[in-house]
Amino acid sequence: MPKRILIIDDQDDLATELGEVFTAAGHTVKTSETRNEAVALSVNEGFDMVITDLGGKNLVSDPGKNGHETLPCLPEPEKKIRSEFKAFKICLANYDNEDFSEEEINYLVSTTLNYKAKFIDRGEAMKKRREKIDFEVPSTIAIMHDILDYLMTRVEKLGVVNPEQSNLFVALDEAFVNAVKHGNKFDTRKLVKISVEISPTEASFSIEDEGEGFDVENIPDPTKPENLLKASGRGVMFIYNIMDEVVYNDRGNRITMIKKNENQV
Q1: Which of 79-83, 112-116, 200-204 has the lowest mean pLDDT?
Q2: CA–CA separation, 171 and 153 (whole Å)
Q3: Degrees (nearest 5) of the Cα angle 251, 155, 75?
Q4: What is the pTM of this model?
Q5: Which residues contact 88 (CB under 8 A, 6 or more apart)?
Q6: How far from the centroid of its chain's Cα atoms is residue 23's Cα?
């Protein structure tokens, strides 16, 4: 079913190509070059999908111009211009679940990530690059696989991990599956929110579901003899062993993980 898609792109490369692809597929596409322009569009129109690809001055909000500091699906405004800072976000928070199609959502997300990968490193100095990557997506495993592949490419590109030696994929996959399976219980009406910040020195990953949460202290220790044959607890143990820092919020529905640059540890 046709969707309304907003693409916010200050370089006009991703917006141009994605706009053509999605329009050809029957979707309605609107574009803007700055965050403030997007705010003005979002106030008057509803979008099923919002794609943001901004950097530097175009991430700074001007509340006096439009009267809105934040709006759903748009990136949080920066207080000052950081030329090396790039923000990319895919948001399906307003996707109409009345005609939910996992195949369609997978197509929208995977197509966006494939086209983003074509442009992201053109002419950029990687040594000082900082990337903010966000996703707000329904609870489907297939989407998580596409997102995980994209994130692994980014942390490898910025030199945080050695792709042939790192187990980062295992930790992220476990956290993603936990959010979809145990947190949201495969309910596609509930979102998984993924927030990632990557720099040449470290990568931070925050994954939040809309479930009831849990107390990590109540998970059985899988290394104890009485728990050796139990499946529960092993995934969390892997995460703690692979990541340099792991923190759960009080509710237990959000995990934040930090991986330091493996070449600098």
Answers
A1: 79-83
A2: 15
A3: 55
A4: 0.88
A5: 52, 53, 116, 120, 131, 132, 133, 134
A6: 24
Q: Which CATH class is domain 4-260?
A: alpha beta
Q: Is the dihedral of CA 144, 145, 147, 153 positive or negative?
A: positive
Q: 164-183 burial, b for 16+ CB within 10 Å, e for fewer? A: eebebbebbbbbbbbbbebb
Dihedral over Cα of 52, 246, 207, 236: its sign: positive
Q: What separation, in Å, do the N-terminal and C-terminal C-alpha atoms of the chain show?
A: 49
Indicate the helix (H) or strand (E) that contains 15: helix 13-24
Which helix (H) or strand (E) is 106 found in, with range? helix 102-119
Q: How far apart are CA 155 and CA 196, in angstroms?
A: 10
Q: What is the dihedral of CA 32, 36, 42, 48, to 10 degrees?
A: 50
Domain boundaries defined on the chain: 4-260
Give the model's pLDDT for residue 56. Answer: 66
Q: What are 236's two structure tokens?
A: 């969390």
pLDDT in tens, 41-61: 877 778 999 999 987 666 666
Sorted by sequence, the CB contacts under 8 Å of residue 29 that are 6+ apart come out as 5, 6, 7, 18, 19, 22, 23
For tokens 């792709």, the residue is: 163
Q: Hey, is 201 helix, strand or coil?
A: coil
In this structure, the dihedral spanned by the alpha carbons of residues 82, 7, 188 and 101, taken in order and rounded to 10 degrees, is -160
Contact in structure between 61 and 38 (CB atoms under 8 Å) = no
